[in-house]
Description:
By secondary structure, the chain is α/β, with parallel strands linked by helices. It has helices spanning 10-21, 60-69, 83-95, 98-125, 144-159, 170-176, 201-214, 257-263, 328-341, 388-405; strands at 2-6, 25-29, 46-47, 75-77, 137-141, 166-169, 189-193, 197-198, 218-220, 225-231, 234-240, 243-246, 249-252, 272-282, 294-297, 302-307, 310-319, 354-360, 367-369, 378-382.
Amino acid sequence: MHVCIVGAGITGLATAYVLQQAGYRVTVVDRGAAPAAGASGGNGAQLSFAYVQPLADPGIWKMLPKLLTEKDSPLRFRLKADPAQWRWGLGFLQACNSATSQASTQSLLSLAAESRVAFEQMLQQESLDCDHKTPGKLVLYPTQEALDTAAQQVALQARMGGATQHIMNAAQVARIEPALGSYAPRMAGAVYTPSESVVDCRVLCEQLATLLQQRGADIRFDTTVHGFDVQGGSIHALRTATGVLQADHFVLASGWDSAQHARQLGLRIPVYPLKGYSITMDTAQQAHAAPLVSVTDTTRKVVFARIGERLRVAGMVEIVGADTTLHTDRIASLQQSTREVFPQLNQTADVQPWTGMRPATPTGLPITGRQRGGPGNLWLQTGHGALGLTLAFGSAQRLLQQMQTA
Length: 406
């Protein structure tokens, strides 16, 4: 069986790897010039297998007015004459209730657990050098009320069979991660998950692409999808800027482009781009000032992850449609957050600014598999939001299982 996968980010390449391991012939096409040219390239680098909380949470209602009106808010919303934006926004608000949030948490935890197993098996089998470490993660909360709410989420995940997590006060946080010592007085405490990991997603994607090619996969970059030839309820061929590509099955793992590609096939899927930003700093000469443990600051909605001798700082959610402009004020905001949380860290001149578009569904649950009304040999693999790196290998295993039983 020959499978054509559209998308060479972490989701597409993980899917290609799993399918190739199972004996499928694989072709990957991507409009970018290299692997991870989209949302995977500069993401937060955290593998959040244990602490998952959907963006659509009932607490958003209390926070929304402040998020929408503050000048330096991590959320930026630009209303557009775009029905897809309206549908996504309304679907998101409808999902911001306790029942939906708990159901989404259960589903995400289950998928994340599967993904951890598949990812770690891949690492054991392959000799990849992608700055993978397991330093643990601290999720910081500014007030006791916020920390108490987080404790409820931890208890919920524990009942669902989640990994071991601990509620820490500010002093305990500073002992776990000394680089947070100056910031400790400004927090109530944190959720500490010792089992959480980090990895350089861009390097991981590059090495996966190399492995795939060495084992016979056809990977085509700089290849724009123009459309599909459909015959008798199945896709006969993919039309691209460089020619026509035939296959037995087609997988859309093209991030936020998946919605557009699906529309070409008469499908409307609830995937919309949530724009994010990151910076990456060299910390080789001041390792003591940068955190070893991964850190998520809920006040600023910013994550900090040590990948090798670099610090990745990522955050922001912009609901602005297809605007891929890298805005300097958002980069400046990430730099300011870094100064406030880690004041001992001297920022380098080159912070490697980046922006990317996360493909998200309103509930936060990815879409994997066939869609009703679509061609019989079309499979979707999209909508992972900010958890693409975390969920990629679990989603790939689920897609393989569906293909094998179809």
